[in-house]
Write a structure and sequence with these properties.
Two copies of one chain form a homodimer.
Chain A lengths: L17 H19 L5 H8 L3 H7 L3 H13 L6 H7 L5 H16 L2 H12 L3 H25 L12 H24 L7 H23 L5
Helix pairs in contact in A: 1-4, 1-7, 2-3, 5-6, 6-10, 8-9, 9-10
The structure holds a DNA duplex (30 and 30 nucleotides).
DNA sequence: ATTATAATTTATCATTTGATAAATGTAAAT
DNA sequence: ATTTACATTTATCAAATGATAAATTATAAT
């Protein structure tokens, strides 16, 4: 009768197809590494998965391979090409476009897994984030600068090239939105506003503020 | 004659006073942990210091103790009380005050050591950052909100309490300024603006933008 | 029911890591 | 020059870690 009173739930061995198991390990690894960083041990990860440690190595021959799979799943092809169109669609008010874009963007990045793994990878590795920042600058920041010029009837880039301050103003908005995720998922402190309020506030402030900036820079409506 | 041709510089044993050595180890640990995270091994740290690993344990009985010392040196008492006065000094234009404050603040936080250790500690631990965020909110964010109300002749807090959007607008500026450090010292990508340009841009945009926000919220000049 | 495939576990290893004790050698005091 | 104090190193350890090989057992095909 003591057999059923064992301390462990006993979790009998369960077989899955290679595809399923591979996926299960990857999903678990994302959650585990997001919490513990890439220095979390494969033994602990296995325990977290409810599986023995050598099994992980059956599907990912080295820890490095597993980490690469985590990177790919989280960051590769997560930039939706439709977002570019949203920003440039001048049939809509610019504020609406920016809110729309950042709402979709935040649906991707404002998760504990994404933010934390992104920072961990930035701190450890650097290639991924070094590649990511220029992508953001090219596809978002720069585009916002251009649209802000147009929305305020300011000269186009062919007349006057983008100034550092214009770039940084967008980066500041962008960084502020990113940082909201850091406060929530890294520091884990209460935030006073919802994501919608955050985006609305950041976009409103930017659009209003960039006019003052343009004035300060001596840009005049054309 | 082969003795002088040894591969190692031979670096003969050097004695320092306990205070000096303790300091040397701490400084090295900050740099080392900032680069490698707190999972960097004490063996590697010793090598980095040009010292044997047990020596570290003579001065810091456990790795935890050393890490705590790193925290304390970087984050404890780094908030200068004079900063509070700068923000609240209504004899100066608000823009000048904000620029002044953030210039000094950035002198502290915009260093690879500070930014990286702060993020590492946030990701691993959380107590420190959980304590730090409310400090910033109380002594900076909130104060900026109040001063922005005053500078725009808007009702005081006794009339109308601070709205989430007002708070978030400042947090966005603040986060944007922080994120500039992340781009430089974590992602290690080129940034287009200098720290001065960044601060000027962020502050200008915020001050201009918060007026639009107030308008949107229905706050009227009194 | 028996067999065959292969998913999963058990057992094991070399290295690394945080930590300790004993030996060594430097610098100051006598 | 000798002695003494103690800063530093050498030697070592148990536990943890990434990784591999062999044994086991669940599942599907026969």
């Amino acid at each position: 009768m003591a057999e059923e009173l064992d301390t462990k739930p006993k979790a009998k061995r369960q077989r899955f197809s290679p595809e399923e198991r591979r996926r299960m390990i990857l999903e678990g690894a994302i959650e585990f590494f997001a919490e513990n960083g890439f220095d979390g041990s494969t033994h602990q990860l296995a325990h977290f998965l409810g599986v023995t440690q050598p099994l992980i190595y059956k599907y990912y021959p080295t820890k490095e391979d597993l980490i690469d799979a985590v990177y790919e799943d989280l960051f590769q092809n997560r930039w939706n090409d439709e977002w570019d169109g949203i920003l440039s669609d001048r049939s809509r008010p610019i504020k609406e476009r920016l809110v729309d874009f950042y709402t979709r963007y935040c649906e991707v990045i404002h998760s504990p897994d994404w933010i934390r793994v992104f920072l961990y990878s930035g701190l450890k590795n650097m290639e991924i984030n070094q590649r990511y920042a220029p992508l953001v600058e090219e596809r978002a920041i720069r585009r916002v600068c251009i649209e802000a010029r147009d929305a305020n009837n300011l000269p186009g880039l062919d007349k006057i090239p983008l100034a550092n301050e214009e770039f940084e103003a967008v980066w500041t908005m962008h960084g502020g939105i990113f940082y909201y995720g850091v406060r929530r998922f890294v520091y884990r402190v209460p935030v006073s506003a919802s994501t919608d309020e955050l985006i609305n506030g950041a976009v409103t402030t930017y659009l209003e503020g960039v006019q003052g900036l343009a004035r300060q820079m001596g840009l005049t409506a054309s």
